[in-house]
Design a protein that fits this description.
Blueprint lengths: L21 H9 L3 H15 L16
Amino acid sequence: MHYVSKGNSGLGIKENLALGCRMCHFNLDHTPQRKQMLETFYQHLLSHYPYWNKDLVTYKKGRD
């Protein structure tokens, strides 16, 4: 699963990814549980990447 979806310019890098089952992936994309799931996802990413921020995982044209 991507924290910032590829459709929203999310990068395919480890800092933007977590492994989830089919049901979790569906729930993240299509249910009211999205907000809570994103918060849990965010906390998970911070626990593994203390430097993490949303800009790090979002494509920006011309960024080095």
